[in-house]
Amino acid sequence: MKVDPECASCLLHRGYLEIARATSDEALQFKAVQALLRMIATDFGPHAVPAYLGTERDRLIRRITGNPDPYLDARRRANELALRSLPVARRFVESSRDGRERLRRLCLVSIVANTIELDVIGHEFDLASLSRMFEQERLVLDHTDRLHDKLLSCKKVLFLADNAGEIALDTLLVAGIKELGPSVTVVVKGKPVIDDALLDDALQVGMDEVADRLITTGTDTVGLIIREASPELIEELMSCDLVVAKGMGNYETLTEERIGRPIAYLLRAKCNPVARSIGVAKESNVAILL
């Protein structure tokens, strides 16, 4: 996915909020904002990819502020609160009438959890109301029947996780995918990048007890940038039958790649550019198999 002119405001808005999280030193804040403005002025254009720019923005901020993980406390808190909603999510899934509806509800729970994302311009969420959303929300694009049939023929699935907090509810979907037959390797980020889930987050929510294998990207990119991925991840990617990609960052990057594998994108379209790219309204829940 290429940038939209609107992406510039998000890059700057989210960048400033991350800078404010990273340091209270006003001189450092000015230095980081000035560097970010120069980066946007140099690199922003119609052929850029938003997640690539977001990756460079976050690296710049961490380098200048000296804070290696500005979202550390926020990630841990998101995990704790999301774990509290697991019992409600389980009851919602277990009331399904058949296997297809069960997968649809598992995907919906996982996508509703994708609303847990910090500092996205124009996007608000309330962790306290997460449990109520399972019954209230719906899938605007729903390929879950096709996904169900595809999973029945798969031996190995690669699951690309997205945000902290969200990953707690992803444990239900990973378990549900395994019930349909395939093994599941779950991938989290190798180093801090915004509020994306790291290995510590996966362990905090018990993903290691659910997934057949838990690995990292080996790097700190927004989404999955293949040229920066670890050899371990590339090997898993080449040997899987299906990729399940959570969130907007993975959508932005993988739509720029040719990986030779079907991809199920599960996400909440939290910004206008991603929504327009998919062809839905902003804040739509999307489960598409490409």
The major sheet is characterized as: 7 strands, mixed
Structural class: alpha/beta
Can you give the helix content as a percent range? 40-55%
CATH class of the largest domain: Alpha Beta
> What is the count of helical runs?
13
Order of helices and strands: HHHHHHHEHEHEHEHEHEHE
Instruction: Give the total of domains.
Output: 2
Distance between the termini: 14 Å
Strand order of the largest sheet: 1-7-6-5-2-3-4
Kindly report the name of the CATH homologous superfamily of the largest domain: Uncharacterised protein PF01937, DUF89, domain 3
Tell me the overall shape. Answer: globular
Number of strands: 7
Percent strand equals 5-15%
Q: Segments where pLDDT lies below 50 for 5+ residues?
A: none
Q: Indicate the CATH topology of the largest domain.
A: Rossmann fold
> Which second-level CATH architecture of the largest domain applies?
3-Layer(aba) Sandwich
Radius of gyration (CA) equals: 18 Å
